[in-house]
Amino acid sequence: EVYFKNLSKQKQKEVMEKNGNNHKLRVCVATCNRADYSKLAPIMFGIKAEPQFFELDVVVLGSHLIDDYGNTYRMIEQDDFDIHTRLHTIVRGEDEAAMVESVGLALVKLPDVLNRLKPDIMIVHGDRFDALALATSAALMNIRILHIEGGEVSGTIDDSIRHAITKLAHYHVCCTRSAEQHLIAMCEDHDRILLAGCPSYDKLLSAKNKDYMSIIRMWLGEDVKTRDYIVALQHPVTTDIKHSIKMFELTLDALISFNKRTLVLFPNVDAGDKEMVRVMRKKGIEHHPNFRAVKHVPFDQFIQLVAHAGCMIGNSSCGVREVGAFGTPVINLGTRQTGRETGENVLHVRDADTQDKILHALQLQFGKQYPCSKIYGDGNAVPRILKFLKSIDLKEPLQKKFCFPPVKDNISQDIDHILETQSALAVDLGGTNLRVAIVSMKGEIVKKYTQLNPKTYEDRLELILKMCIEAASEAVNVNCRILGVGISTGGRVNPREGIVLHSTKLIQEWSAVDLRTPISDALHLPVWVDNDGNCAALAERKFGHGKGIENFVTLITGTGIGGGIVHQHELIHGSSFCAAELGHIVVSLDGPECLCGSQGCIEAYASGIALQREAKKLHDEDLLLVEGMSMKEEEVVSAAHLIQAAKLGNTKADSILRTAGTALGLGVVNILHTMNPSLVILSGVLASHYVNAVKDVINRQALSSVKTVDVVVSNLADPALLGAASLVLDYTTRRIY
């Protein structure tokens, strides 16, 4: 909304002058079914709200006008839109021929409508056969076409129809960066491609209905609780109707066995849909006490139903697209959505050939809660689309131009033709400071915020949320698109659940803390959490010395000693998320006591805390300060004083540092003999002081077969933040079952 309100009035004036001062853009929106209306309605509301720029004509056809599918044109009337034309275009039938005849009937009827309306531009959505008839008619009648959701990849005949409409369309609004790249690869003019996000997300991300329980009870019964019911929506696969019918039977059998209250929606108008309805009736679904079978649910109410469901199952694009905005678990059956970008809430059952397999998937997914996903939109699609429409110059030649290879790199642009940088919000929870940064895909820290880390859990979480919200708002101003939040924290972390299991003593009240849920709920972004040592290794893998290295180890030398292990390009977490606690490798049986309660750990010798402890001992005995050093009375003794003393010739300080370096070197030798990495990266403020000592110990103590290992000092200025960003920027969301 802010983005839209701040549009340049001068640019609007220029476009009006180009198209004629008094000429409003006449936009025809044609909707064919309940699904495409949920995407088109937000755009229609936006167009209707600006009568000084647009004239809106609404054409309704397809399954909207069929009683068997709920006469869904009524919801368009309820939204207070004037329907200019109703076209009955569906030919009844149960095979592929009926779909072809429906396209033909629409092609016969549409020319008369378009001749009467004479729109400047027609908005067509998606990949249905009805939409192909609309695009064909408009293209042959020299009417500009704006195609919504082109460039995506799914399955069945829908892919072919979608790409065919792309070739007919003059302008494209896509939802994801991958879809945008597909359009560019298909030789579409990148100046006519808008990466806006899905229009339905404008409504999804702002949907707040305190009375959602009344909606749930209305559709599923009075005794149903949130997260304790299932929404099922399955359509026939037109390229393999027989198999999709069998899969639907298995799905219903699994749902009956699972014994949870289930809302089943009727399938789309496609070849095979009648047979699916017969399967429902054969199994008595409409009269089964656990099932509610309905032809249509209004979109506003459908949003609330899926947002609070225990699971959604089927093969609808809604499951892999819109439902991710709520983190509701989804089971995607078969191949109908193969290739779609999905959030981690989606479990794919590609070959759903047995009831047991579907039942097992239900047992895995039901009742879980995943991070909210914004893969398909950030809630600002409609303002971008309206601005895009206003920028269209009707005096430009109608003939399309194709941009044949080679394709430019990095030509993603929003409506102002400015590159929006894919970025992450990175959070670093240290013992002293709490830092949040906007980090670009290239590892550039665009903006950084620093505050003292509060001592209590409540204050700390409140500050994290406040800083993240502030950074997310600022991201718009610096032209960054935030993909998610990555958090680096001390202690033992379960990265799968986003929970800090146990904390170090440096961060108080920080055990058994769920970080993912509150931050994801507040920002509507996916959230990843990991140990700070693991994050440092990820930073090296993406931005530092570890880039392209198959096996390497990172050691952080700071207040404590930590690290991360990358083996065969993957980070090792261990069976209880305790892998790479490298600071607690024991190098002496009777060494100094460590904060972990053991003795002789590397951390007890070589950490900043250990060096500070030894510096205080020397200072208490008046053995620390040498010529050239001075300390104020109130100044706290630190590891830095010990290092300074050693450099100025203090032999005792130098001996302590050599012992610390030897301890660290022995730990590294143990790592070499255990993991056999090809590279060891020393990171942190003490790394440069230890690197030579570590190399010396390796030469003296290591087996000859591992002495060739490279030991280097990290060149990354901020590995904790960069590693937290890597959690987001490198995360793969697709899961296969």
Automatic annotation (TrEMBL):
Catalytic activity: UDP-N-acetyl-alpha-D-glucosamine + H2O = aldehydo-N-acetyl-D-mannosamine + UDP + H(+); an N-acyl-D-mannosamine + ATP = an N-acyl-D-mannosamine 6-phosphate + ADP + H(+)
Gene from which this protein is expressed: Gne
UniProt pathway annotation: Amino-sugar metabolism; N-acetylneuraminate biosynthesis
Keywords: Allosteric enzyme, ATP-binding, Cytoplasm, Hydrolase, Kinase, Metal-binding, Multifunctional enzyme, Nucleotide-binding, Phosphoprotein, Transferase, Zinc
Assembly and oligomerization: Homodimer. Homotetramer. Homohexamer. The hexameric form exhibits both enzyme activities, whereas the dimeric form only catalyzes the phosphorylation of N-acyl-D-mannosamine.
Catalytic residues of the enzyme: D532
Recorded GO MF terms: ATP binding; hydrolase activity, hydrolyzing O-glycosyl compounds; metal ion binding; N-acylmannosamine kinase activity; UDP-N-acetylglucosamine 2-epimerase activity
Homology family: In the N-terminal section; belongs to the UDP-N-acetylglucosamine 2-epimerase family.
Main location: cytoplasm
Keyword Transferase set for record: yes
InterPro entries: ATPase_NBD, ROK, UDP-GlcNAc_Epase, UDP_GlcNAc_Epimerase_2_dom
EC number(s) per entry: 2.7.1.60, 3.2.1.183
Entry-linked CDD domains: ASKHA_NBD_ROK_GNE (cd24060), GTB_UDP-GlcNAc_2-Epimerase (cd03786)
Lineage, opening ranks: Eukaryota, Metazoa, Chordata, Craniata, Vertebrata
Binding annotation for an N-acyl-D-mannosamine: R492, T504, D532, E581, H584, E603
Cellular component terms per the entry's GO annotation: cytosol
Protein name: Bifunctional UDP-N-acetylglucosamine 2-epimerase/N-acetylmannosamine kinase
Provenance organism: Cepphus grylle
UniProt-listed Gene3D superfamilies: 3.30.420.40, Glycogen Phosphorylase B
